[in-house]
Design a protein that fits this description.
This protein is of the alpha+beta class and 281 residues long. Helices cover 21% and strands 32% of the residues. Strands 4, 5, 7, 8, 10, 13 and 15 form a seven-stranded antiparallel sheet that branches. A hairpin with a 2-residue loop joins β2 and β3.
Length: 281
């Protein structure tokens, strides 16, 4: 029984899928007769048809939006009208391509999604990677910070820890957290302070995902002395399944009050378990 690593399920080689289907059906590209149409701008041949099949699979894996896109209706309507390119391919070759698409669908379905936590102190529970705090001297481990005015209840924070910083308007360097992960969704959770004597407790955050600004979050403090725990300050549930970099920045305006950050943890959704997780196929 073959072993297939789940973390590769959504990144399986398209050549491997085609080769597998060819092996199972005992069909060889060189044995088929191909239609006389241009493939990738060149006259068709066994090599060209092979390349067209790969393009079909690539289109499917990128979009997976409709069966029409899978089989590759031609955009050259003046040449081919409304006829499907797939319909012009010999039956055995057509069957092989559809088998490949079906096999790839099964492989993708076999990769379940699950959530992974990145703790402020303990890092990624799957990869062991830690958040990067910049500047290093500008952040404190809140549960052990003697000089920090904000005092949340450690029993209500994940693993009893959080990272504490305050961005002042005159600070030359912004306070940031950088987190890398691979997945399709991400959720950021903070502890939020309200009224704390002798300290500013406005929370103002900016979020950059893969180098692009995507969101802001602001919480003006109330008169309550209660802390709020597990507060979702940013979420994105429609990410491409790939590696991402999330940067969280503590924000304040040149004339505004300081901004307090009590960062607790991040959760992301992934289809890529660690390499020890295998499924038999």
């Amino acid at each position: 029984m073959a072993q297939f690593p789940l973390e590769r399920a959504r990144h399986v080689s398209r050549d491997a899928v085609i080769s597998c289907c060819l092996h199972l059906s005992s069909i060889h590209w060189s044995d088929a007769t191909y239609p006389s149409i241009d493939v990738d701008g060149k006259p068709s041949s066994s090599t060209g048809a092979h390349r067209w099949a790969m393009t079909t699979i690539a289109s499917y894996t990128r979009s997976r939006s409709s069966i029409i896109k899978m089989v590759g209706f031609s955009s050259r309507s003046s040449e081919l009208g409304s006829r499907s390119v797939l319909a012009m391919v010999p039956f055995k070759l057509r069957l092989t391509i559809l088998n490949a698409l079906a096999l790839y669908s099964v492989i993708c379905v076999c990769a379940p999604s699950f959530n992974v936590t990145i703790d402020d102190r303990d890092g990624d529970s799957r990869t062991g990677q830690y958040p990067e705090y910049d500047p290093p001297g500008g952040w404190a481990q809140g549960a052990n910070c003697g000089g920090c005015q904000a005092r949340p209840d450690p029993s209500k924070a994940l693993h009893g820890t959080w990272h504490d910083t305050t961005q002042h308007p005159q600070d030359p360097t912004p306070r940031t957290i950088t987190i890398s992960f691979s997945g399709t969704a991400v959720y950021v959770y903070n502890i939020i302070a309200n009224h704390v004597p002798a300290t500013d407790t406005l929370t103002s955050l900016s979020f950059m995902l893969d180098g692009e600004h995507v969101a802001t979050y602001e919480h003006p403090p109330t008169q309550s002395s209660q802390y709020m725990y597990d507060v979702l300050v940013y979420s994105n549930g429609s990410l491409e399944d790939m590696k991402h970099t999330l940067k969280i920045q503590d924000m304040t305006s040149p004339t505004g009050p300081p901004s307090l950050v009590l960062f607790d943890y991040v959760v992301y959704t992934t289809h890529q378990p660690d390499s020890s997780s295998l499924v038999s196929i």
